[in-house]
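Troubleshooting: if your tokenizer reports a length mismatch, compare your output against this known-good record of 756 residues.
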Amino acid sequence: MAAVPEKSPSLLPPAEVLARTGRRRRFIDSAARYGMAFGGISVIIAILLIFVYLLYVVLPMFAGPAVEPVASYTAPRPGEETLHLALEEQNELGVRFTRSARVVFFRTEDGSVRDTHQLPLPAGVEVTSFADADPALATVALGLSDGRALVVRHRYDVTFPGDERVITPALEYPLGEAPVLVDPEGKALLRLAVQRGEEGVSLAATTADRRLVLTSFQQQTSFLDDSVSYERTSVTLPYPSEEPTRVLIDKDLREFYVAGIGRISYFDITDPATPTLVQELSVLQGDDRIAALEFLAGGISLLIGTSAGKLSQWFPVRDDKGKYSLTHIRDFDAHAAAISAIAGEHNRKGFLAADVSGRLGIYHTTARRTLLVEPLSGHAVSHVAVSPRANALLAEDTQGNTIFWRIHNEHPEISWSALWGKVWYESYEQPEYIWQSSSASNDFEPKFSLVPISFGTLKAAFYAMMFAIPLAIMGAIFTAHFMSPRMRRVVKPSIEIMEALPTVILGFLAGLWLAPIVEKHLPGFFSLLIILPLAILLAAYAWQRLPGTVRHLVPAGWEGALLIPVVLLIGGLAIAMSPVLEVWFFGGDMRVWLTSTLGVDFDQRNSIVVGIAMGFAVIPTIFSIAEDAIFAVPKHLVNGSLAMGATPWQTLVRVVLLTASPGIFSAVMIGFGRAVGETMIVLMATGNTPIMDMSIFQGMRTLAANIAVEMPESEVNSTHYRVLFLAGLVLFAFTFLVNTAAEIVRQRLRRRYSSL
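Known-good structure output:
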């Protein structure tokens, strides 16, 4: 009887083991799927939160101003004509100068009188004119009927007895309590201007006998006892063709303006002993008349209000010959009635204008904005004063009513035209794109144009990509398609590890090592761009002409290593020949030749240096992604092309590159995004000058570098601070749009060549 074979044990695990393994795999798959979904959604949410936060910081800049009526009452000490109104910094006290030479300090909330002073006028003398200096100086002058003037400054001493703020008003007399002589002939001063500078006080006046007098008091300090005295200089200026209605002296004591009905005479009084008439021009047309004339903060611009309700800004502009002329810069929305009063903000380029219908407008010159127009009174407004912080106003109408309002106007400088359009800034010859966010002077006109730093961002990325794309893409093609596998295992990780190099190191090397080398060997550098490609082509040709026995000594795919000594040799030769080339072709100094012959300025830290340094930072990203895309092309496509008789180059161009084009395009766009957002290299390798010049010899300032430089110095929630966040939002939006467009193009390329 044959033996029955034993049943062999099953090679499959028991059913319960299979079930348990299946459940574990399904759990792992589900966890991975939901984990990846959670991670992707979290990334999207994080990006949206960043965008929302940027908007949260930026949007308040575009909020309109608001006013809050606080009080309205009869002018303190009524029955006397008001000559001038002013507010102190805390908006608690106001001051009123009257025709009877009385100074009344009062509480703005209710109009109650805090203090009263009678100015010391000589007996039998009347006040015939009044003038106020720059608002920040709190200085006024009263012109008298005997040709003299009294200069007065109002000040406010702040103390904190018992931890409570107490503001005590006081008066002081810069030229002494006795009036000073303005007109040597002693005639009444009908129109008066006053300005106080660091070295003295200047007064100008029109007299009752139709003369124009300029009197300066230059401060003299004794070396013995530090006592101060004033040297008086008085000159007579040409009387204008129109009867003067207003005279003004700028805060730097350099310019003097006399306004008539529709004409303005512009004098240069830099030397008060020899003033000169620069220009006399008509600023209005037709029957329109100058109704109000004031300086903008800083004393450079004139604000003109007319009887037709028009408002305009003028300031001196220098022409090609260095001659200044008063120029019309911009207009603002007109009022429906004649302008009756203008008050400039103390430290910003904004102003208030009131008209005879009782309406008040708030404006900003640089932004060219009409911020707000509101009814202020039911009667014509005769005087307007704005507080030093521009957060309150004090006004008086022709019926003797005083009005006190609070103003909420944090960011008047911002408008679409100020951010993205050409703006004609003070002391510039023409409208320009300018970024200049800070200055040591309160008279500074903020320049927040985002155009030059956006241009600098694109310029830096453009030159970096010009350097990086050819090297990275060609290197990726050679590495993936022609290089031997053994050499590829060395080259690819070596290039990819470059991405771990801190960009601050690249920026440091570019700014302190590469930039001086490029500057010193500029002719050699440019000759290298020509002779290096030719040398490589010549070396390749010579290699092909060598006998096969010699060429076969080098394994296939290692030929590229032979170019290393060629590149080093040609590079060294170009640097060595640079001084000779500079003497032969550029007179011994190529930088001077560029400036004198071509009119091109040279900056040591320029676009060449930035392009090379940023190119090295971007090359690993582009190379790695592009090389993976080319190497991932299915081998059956390559082998099929070669089997059909195509050469390796034909296969590369007609099969490999087309199939890998979505990945190559993605590599380029990711590299471009990296270049756009680069900070440290641009920060250290350029002069950080926000200029708009495509010259390779000039630097730039980018959005990212600008944020890095200026954010630590900006005041939180200030306009500067929010504009920097706006720059970040622009960079964020630009990157988002570029990446979105790149993804659309990539998907189209993928669909088009997926059938290969």
